[in-house]
Amino acid sequence: MSEAVTSETLSFRSNAGVAASARPLRVLVAASGTGGHLIPALHIIRALQELQPGVVIETIGAGKQLEEKIFVQSGLKRHVIAASGVKHRGIVGWAGFVAGFPVGFLQCVRLFRRFRPDVVVGVGGYVTVLPVIVARLMRIPTWIHEAELHPGLANAVLGRFAERASLAFAETKIKGRVKTVFTGHPVRPELQRVERSALRDDAPKRLLIMGGSQGARGLDSVIPEIAELLHSRSIEVVHQSRPENMELVINSYRAAHVKASVVAFIDDMAGAYEWSDIIISRAGASSVAEVGAVNRPAIFVPYPFQQGTHQTDNAKALAAAGKALVVEETIPEFGRRLCEALAGLLERDAYRAMKSAPYQPKGLEAAHQIAQGIMELGSRKE
User: Would residue 215 be called left, alpha or beta, if left means φ above 0 and alpha means ψ between -120 and 50 degrees?
Assistant: First the structure.
């Protein structure tokens, strides 16, 4: 028997429609591994919260300590699922993946049924694989972000499952059903206030050394070989060091009479960038994007034990634009070659030429562009 349509029925349906439309967007964001995945995820989350107040966001991680620091201490609820990487781990890695797959799969299904996300977002690391696959099976819209020039294994797989992918590099290709959009890589919004175009009248005098979210042993250990150059050019240094290397680094600067501030973590990165004239840095996707965004001449030292050539490719992309030099840590006489590159960049004309080279970074708008795309994707969910 067909339902009789009355004014009461129409009123009920109208109210239900209003209630449904008023339901806040619900987003699950998966990311793990290094700060190179977690920090961009946080930038995207903050952009979502700014663009759509009331949005409900929770996160998925693998139980790493850095997730606690970046997600949980930022007031975000984190769910931990069973997940393990396989790349370069041989049979042990595959065995761990196979063993954890059923558990992680069920954890995702239960979480999705309880949280009822409108969109599932993966921002890098092996922990993104299961949530995106399960979301696809449950017909939940999915968005992934690729930070590298050449996709990592996780996103190479997820290209067959995700609906949308944002790209840090316009040249990046992801195979599969996924539709891609070039957004650039999300950077911290406070970089908007960093002055980009001013040139020093004299040679550069302030050097910022960054080793990524946890410092870099290679950049710490090479300081004794470049300290004399820094002293001879009257260079002032801010150096982010690994905690266990801080005494060595401090003593190296002190012995060479170099004015240096050595810290394990830089809380005010925008302020550090503003202060700096030139930068020596690892070449993670976030570091390269931020250095490009603030327009500081740089020397990139890719992590020598990287999976694939991601950091080298990232660095070469900016070097090709005339905005950076690349010095490989694996080459013989790394300290001497880094010293030579730094000596050249400390020359007034070389510094001014690199800073003045034309380059238009995308990262300053990336988080908001990705957030807008996620919101549009979520609004189409049935």
Answer: left
